[in-house]
């Protein structure tokens, strides 16, 4: 399955990107709070980029874990993190958009925060799509593995049945010849 390897590689690359976006968003949020504290009192939405960055960071780390271990529970946890990252990115964008309308706003900083939020949202959407592809691939792999296992067990039971039938026929032949039958 070459496409499965491509999906895992894409997931790992996007996870590293998401971790970088999360760290950048956190650092810009801290810079924004430090710059705002000197000018005015903190208000609602000033720290939204920090929370969004934390969600992106956790989402990226879960993506790395999902690329390494592809169990059902980890994929479900990763999907939940993707949804949280998506929601936090949207809320961050909306809060920063409102804050940027203030007269004392740091426009270049807010623009950078909104760009990071948009990139985080896009990566979260791609994560969701890749997770669905990876889950489908894993389901198909497990199905084929189970089918192979069942086929192998049927072959073994058929072989055992043939061996027992052969032994029973030889025992019957020996008893007809007048010889004593050997123990099983």
UniProtKB/TrEMBL annotation:
Transmembrane segments annotated in the record for this chain: 12-36, 48-66, 73-91, 111-132
Polar residues bias locations: 170-184
Compartments, as annotated in UniProt: Cytoplasm; Membrane
Membrane topology, as annotated: Multi-pass membrane protein
Residues annotated as signal peptide: 1-22
Keywords in alphabetical order: Cytoplasm, Membrane, Signal, Transmembrane, Transmembrane helix
UniProt region (Disordered), positions on chain: 162-184
Record's GO cellular component terms: cytoplasm; membrane
Name of the molecule in the record: Transmembrane protein 196
Species of the source: Esox lucius
């Amino acid at each position: 399955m070459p496409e499965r390897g491509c999906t895992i590689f894409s997931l790992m690359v996007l996870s590293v990107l998401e971790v970088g976006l999360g760290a950048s968003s956190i650092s810009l949020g801290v810079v924004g709070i430090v710059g705002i504290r000197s000018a005015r009192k903190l208000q609602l939405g000033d720290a939204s980029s920090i929370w969004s960055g934390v969600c992106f960071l956790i989402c990226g780390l879960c993506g790395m874990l999902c690329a390494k271990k592809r169990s059902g529970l980890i994929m479900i946890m990763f999907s939940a993190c993707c949804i949280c990252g998506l929601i936090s990115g949207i809320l961050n964008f909306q809060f920063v958009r409102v804050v940027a309308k203030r007269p004392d706003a740091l426009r270049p900083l807010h623009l950078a925060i909104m760009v990071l939020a948009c990139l985080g949202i896009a990566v979260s959407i791609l994560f969701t799509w890749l997770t669905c592809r990876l889950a489908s691939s894993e389901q198909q792999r497990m199905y084929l593995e189970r089918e192979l296992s069942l086929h192998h067990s049927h072959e073994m039971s058929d072989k055992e049945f043939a061996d027992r039938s052969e032994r029973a026929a030889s025992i019957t032949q020996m008893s007809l010849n007048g010889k004593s039958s050997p123990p099983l």
